[in-house]
TrEMBL record:
A Pfam match: YkuD
Annotated source species: Kaistia nematophila
Key word Cell wall biogenesis/degradation present: yes
Pathway: Cell wall biogenesis; peptidoglycan biosynthesis
Protein name, per record: L,D-transpeptidase
Organism phylogeny: Bacteria, Pseudomonadati, Pseudomonadota, Alphaproteobacteria, Hyphomicrobiales
Length: 234
């Protein structure tokens, strides 16, 4: 667990400073946005009904049973409209399909009968958004993160992870990762676990989609390999 501001900033830099790529080209390298800081991320101001604050404290509480115990999310930094909830959602997609709506900063898991589980998300920033169909080609818990060589060239301090950064609380991919594929090839886009509630509801990545760790664990457990993923236009 991170216990001081310097380490927190370092972790944020690792999570948010993954290399980007041109929007709409799912065959090129992409990860998250370069060099953002906690202070640069503001909170959205409005809220909606649904989960109460007390329920949210439970839903986003600590997860001590994990390989690397996950601390509670500071929900004071999360707009309540991004709490996980079941919503009415008309879709022709098969139940289980994941739909990313970057314009609204939501990820939906289609449940059928006109309903979906909705999660707040961070998404691609301006110039790095993409849309189209993909599928979950593989999954990983506490995945190893390997910085692209282009990132190492720009940020030499990342070179120490050229052989891969082991999974853990400081790893940018977090507790769970869904790797998105098209036509049998890894797009280098992911849906990943974030521990930074300030990023939810923001366009801060280079095409990857982040859910809070507790939400990502929930989605991951319901999502088998080959699940369809639809990314809507922003």
């Amino acid at each position: 667990m991170i216990t001081d501001g310097r380490n927190a900033d370092a972790r944020m830099a690792h999570e948010m400073a993954l290399l980007g790529r041109e929007p709409g080209l799912a065959s090129r390298r992409a990860f998250l946005v370069g060099a953002a800081s906690l202070g640069a991320l503001g909170l959205a101001g409005c809220s909606t009904g649904g989960m109460s604050a007390a329920e949210a404290r439970l839903a986003y509480g600590p997860v001590p049973t994990e390989k690397f115990p996950i601390p509670a999310t500071d929900i004071s930094r999360l707009d309540p409209k991004y709490y996980r909830r079941t919503v009415q959602y008309a879709s022709k997609e098969t139940p289980g399909t994941i739909i990313v709506d970057p314009a609204k900063h939501y990820v939906y898991r289609v449940e059928g009968d006109g309903k979906a589980t909705r999660y707040g998300a961070n998404v691609g920033r301006d110039g790095f958004r993409w849309s189209g169909d993909a599928y979950v080609g593989r999954k990983a818990e506490w995945a190893t993160w390997t910085p692209p060589k282009e990132m190492i060239a720009r940020q030499p301090e990342a070179a120490k992870y050229a052989g891969g950064m082991p999974g853990g609380l400081d790893n940018p991919l977090g507790a769970r990762t869904l790797y998105l594929y098209q036509d049998g090839k890894y797009t280098l886009y992911t849906i990943y676990a974030s521990s930074h509630p300030e990023s939810i509801g923001k366009g801060v990545t280079s095409g990857c989609v982040g859910l809070l760790s507790q939400d990502m664990i929930d989605l991951y457990g319901k999502t088998p390999v080959d699940t369809k993923v639809v990314v809507l236009p922003a």
